[in-house]
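Deliverable D4.2, example record:
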Amino acid sequence: MLPLQLIDSILINYNIGQILLLGFVLTTVGALPLKSQQLIGLNTILFGVIFLLTPVSLMPSAYLFLGLTLVVIGPIVYVTARE
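Output generated by the structure prediction step:
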């Protein structure tokens, strides 16, 4: 278990948008071995909604547009999945 001070000292240099983007990339890479396009689509939709619901005061507005893009692309990826 990591002490909270260590986690805080690492995260203090980044805004919430960068942390969420890192989480999106890590969960997408983690889901790739499962070879489930539906799971990737759901992950994309989920992080798009998270980016849209996060207050703009905590991150630059560019991440809002990223969230909007992910919400549009996620259902397309989910529907086109063959499973």
